[in-house]
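Working notes for the structural subgroup meeting. M.R. asked for a predicted model of this chain before we commit to crystallization trials. I am recording the input and output together here so anyone reviewing the notebook later can reproduce the run.

Input as submitted:
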Amino acid sequence: MNKLQFIDALKKETGITKPEAAQIISIFFNEMSEALARGERVEIRGLCSFFVKKYKSYTGRNPKTGEKVTIAPKKLPFFKCGKELKERVDKK
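Returned structure, recorded in token form:
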């Protein structure tokens, strides 16, 4: 399912216009993105949670040359599935 399909589902379920549904979906995803950018955890009970995982700097190797390379510290977003979603997917 993509963003446009979310918009169409919201429009059909609620009876609001497509531009209103698009604005709601946009606000939802923008707020999630902003919270993650601030390092906050986003939790949707029964569905999932998103959080930022921090990695320290480490020494890696260039696979072509074998040369040692320093990898800079970084932060990456992660998704963790909720218990209810796991059970629902497993039943189907």
